[in-house]
């Protein structure tokens, strides 16, 4: 499963890239609002950090407006994917983008049928919001599982991206459900790295190493020549 970062924070993206775990980035108007500035400039910076897909979301409600915004984003960098919210106009825009060779990510997916339609319209990425479904007492992971099964049954090439991921368990469940991609807030990525026994073990190894070096009369951190 590919791991994307769900953020517009450049430093977070640089960190995940340095760790060697970053396959792409998703942004949206809410994430952009947290950092402000020029959305175009932020997208261009992100696209330089990662060669993977970078989602840029349109905000128009009408088809022509979506097309205009999306074509503009697509010119910013070759790895831009235009994010379009699920709607009747959204489907039409996705279909037109597909005809023009512009890749799209259909966002705000809350049912398997919405995902199926987005794929049929030509979206390359389908984004069900797992956490927001869990919030209203519906199992978000069911949509991920059903869509991956359907895409596999019918050889549909669109990728299922588990969005609105809120905790590390969501990541494991998305991977087990066959999600092609999960997009994570930086906090969840960091939570995945850590385990109390790992952190405790590192401290213990360092302590034992230092005791052994001192007993042997060497500098605590130095190695043998
Ligand atoms: O990728 C969509 C994501 O940003 C939504 O997450 O936590 O606001 O539901 P959340």
Q: Could you say how many structural domains there are in total?
A: 2
Q: Name the beta content range.
A: 15-25%
Which small-molecule ligands are present, each listed once?
A: SN-glycerol-3-phosphate
Helical residue percent band: 40-55%
Question: Radius of gyration, Cα only, in angstroms?
Answer: 21 Å
The number of helical elements comes to 11
Total number of beta strands: 8
Largest sheet: 8 strands, parallel, barrel
Q: Rough shape? A: elongated
What's the architecture of the largest domain in CATH terms? Answer: Alpha-Beta Barrel
- Uncertain stretches of 5 or more adjacent residues: none
State the CATH topology of the largest domain. TIM Barrel
Structural class: alpha/beta
Overall mean pLDDT: 96
Q: What series of H and E elements makes up the topology?
A: EHEHHEHEHEHEHHEHEHH
| CATH H-tier superfamily of the largest domain | Aldolase class I
End-to-end Cα distance = 43 Å
CATH top level assignment of the largest domain: Alpha Beta
Neighbour order of strands in the largest sheet:
1-2-3-4-5-6-7-8
């Amino acid at each position: 499963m590919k791991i994307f970062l769900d953020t517009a924070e450049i430093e977070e993206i640089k960190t995940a890239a340095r760790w060697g775990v970053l396959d792409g980035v998703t942004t949206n108007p809410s994430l952009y609002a947290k950092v402000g500035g020029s959305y175009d400039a932020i997208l261009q910076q992100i696209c330089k950090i990662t060669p993977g897909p970078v989602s840029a979301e349109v905000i128009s409600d009408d088809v022509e407006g979506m097309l205009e915004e999306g074509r503009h984003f697509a010119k910013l960098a070759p790895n831009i994917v235009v994010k379009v919210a699920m709607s009747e106009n959204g489907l039409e825009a996705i279909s037109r983008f597909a005809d023009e060779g512009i890749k799209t990510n259909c966002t705000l997916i809350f049912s398997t049928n919405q995902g199926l339609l987005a794929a049929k319209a030509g979206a390359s990425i389908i984004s069900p919001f797992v956490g927001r479904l869990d919030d209203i007492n519906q199992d978000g992971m069911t949509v991920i599982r059903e869509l991956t099964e359907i895409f596999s049954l019918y050889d549909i090439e669109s990728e299922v991206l588990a969005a609105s991921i809120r905790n590390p368990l969501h990541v494991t469940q998305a991977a087990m459900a066959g999600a092609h991609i999960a997009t994570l807030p930086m906090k969840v990525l960091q939570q995945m790295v850590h385990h109390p026994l790992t952190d405790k073990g590192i401290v213990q190894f360092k302590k034992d190493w230092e005791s052994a070096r001192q007993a042997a009369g060497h500098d605590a951190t130095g190695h043998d020549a």
